[in-house]
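quick q for whoever's on today - can somebody do inverse folding on this one?? i tried earlier but teh output was garbage lol. tokens:
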């Protein structure tokens, strides 16, 4: 078996959520606990940080991993989904798991998998936890896959739990109100384990988190209440912060959402210090400045071209996209060229309504669809958009849409690619 066959086995035997959506979702931790026992509870052999929330999980997870790495720790990082290569999900000090280890995992354990019928995410989580133990990491930063309470990462006993924010996403699983979604996300709050909440959405949501923390005796800190960031300025490529405890910092991750993410990160660092974990100001500075090169992070306000400025970002719901379009409106440009697609099980009409009110004018929209099963057909998103007074041209794939935008754009325009993680994935695959 080669690497391509091993990855295809994982996809075929346990269908990938990004392709089939709800049919790939398995509720409960039964299979996870069986796999965990089979591999002798590998996550107990290193310290962990658990990161949940609706938006910002990836940025927070990668930056914390970079900071710990800059301190000299050996750091595992488990995130999802991947953009270009499956191995992006499982990294140690920025280096993806080897192809050979993925092959060995499938070859050695396929008899168990064929009997158990786990989900794709259950299998990959088991692989990540085992690999981190084998490689003797000091810490692993573990990003929640979906929700929290019954996500298969929720068997860990972390040093710190982090919930970045709450927005409407995966409502078919997590609930159709923010308090219901918050209740699912709050499932990662553990007894006697500090929890950092990144963004105060509402009094109702704050109450959900506070009550859960009180029930289990978890110290809870709301990052926004700490006032760690004193001032924030931005340009196209970086964010600059004046902070209470860390002095002046420069963040490699741009976009207006990064101010709240950075407040969450810095508050989390202070909590980790209180847990006795050594993290210097120098490590914080280096991790913030070099997160993309240290961890391989892609798709967060990623600038892939100049003249015209060309940006892609994986924001894919109202909460995330509202930050994106507010930021785009602050950038000087003659015209915005928007390459846009979504997946069918998101709040497409809600996003399109928001898009109509926030999109900088003048603009041209290039509607498209990603190469995954869940992608909304481009004809359908065009039809939906027209009902929201948004007109554009349909392109059958992201590469065609990008070629058209490049042909039409002048040097002082902006091209933005987004709406779905998988649109960005297709864009990056076409240029890397």
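ok took a stab at it. sequence:
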């Amino acid at each position: 078996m080669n690497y391509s066959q091993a990855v295809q086995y994982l996809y075929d035997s346990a269908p990938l959520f990004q392709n089939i959506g709800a049919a790939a979702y398995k509720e409960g931790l039964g299979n996870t606990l069986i796999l965990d026992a089979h591999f002798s509870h590998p996550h107990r052999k290193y310290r962990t940080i658990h990161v949940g929330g609706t938006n910002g999980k990836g940025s927070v997870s990668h930056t914390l991993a970079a900071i710990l790495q800059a301190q000299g720790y050996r750091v595992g990082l488990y995130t999802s989904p991947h953009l270009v290569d499956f191995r992006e999900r499982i990294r140690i000090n920025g280096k993806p798991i080897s192809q050979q280890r993925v092959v060995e995992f499938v070859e050695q354990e396929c008899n168990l998998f064929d009997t158990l019928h786990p989900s794709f995410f259950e299998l990959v989580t088991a692989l990540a936890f085992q690999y981190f133990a084998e490689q003797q990491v000091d810490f692993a930063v573990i990003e929640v896959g979906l929700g929290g309470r019954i996500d298969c990462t929720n068997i860990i006993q972390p040093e710190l739990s982090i919930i970045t924010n709450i927005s409407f996403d995966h409502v078919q699983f997590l609930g159709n109100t923010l308090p219901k979604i918050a209740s699912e996300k709050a499932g990662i709050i553990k007894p006697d384990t500090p929890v950092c909440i990144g963004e105060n959405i509402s009094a109702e949501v704050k109450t959900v988190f506070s009550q859960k923390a009180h029930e289990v005796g978890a110290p809870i800190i709301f990052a926004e209440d700490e006032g760690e960031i004193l001032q924030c300025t931005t340009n196209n490529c970086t964010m600059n912060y004046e902070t209470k405890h860390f002095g002046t910092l420069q963040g490699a991750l741009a976009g207006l959402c990064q101010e709240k993410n950075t407040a969450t990160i810095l508050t989390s660092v202070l909590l980790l210090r209180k847990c006795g974990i050594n993290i210097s100001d120098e490590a914080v500075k280096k991790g913030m400045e070099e997160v993309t090169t240290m961890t391989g992070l892609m798709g967060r306000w990623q600038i892939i071209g100049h003249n015209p400025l060309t940006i892609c970002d994986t924001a894919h719901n109202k909460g995330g996209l509202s930050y994106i379009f507010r930021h785009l409106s602050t950038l000087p440009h003659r015209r915005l060229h928007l390459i846009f697609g979504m997946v069918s099980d998101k709040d497409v009409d809600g996003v399109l309504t928001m898009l109509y009110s926030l999109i900088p004018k003048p603009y041209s929209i290039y509607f498209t669809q990603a190469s995954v099963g869940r992608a909304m057909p481009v004809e359908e998103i065009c039809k939906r958009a027209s009902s929201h007074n948004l007109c554009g041209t349909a392109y059958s794939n992201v590469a065609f849409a990008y070629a058209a935008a490049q042909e039409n754009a002048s040097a002082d325009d902006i091209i933005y690619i987004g709406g779905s993680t998988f649109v960005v994935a297709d864009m990056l695959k076409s240029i890397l």
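fwiw The two ends are 26 Å apart (CA to CA). also The chain is about 45% helix and 15% strand. so keep that in mind when u check it
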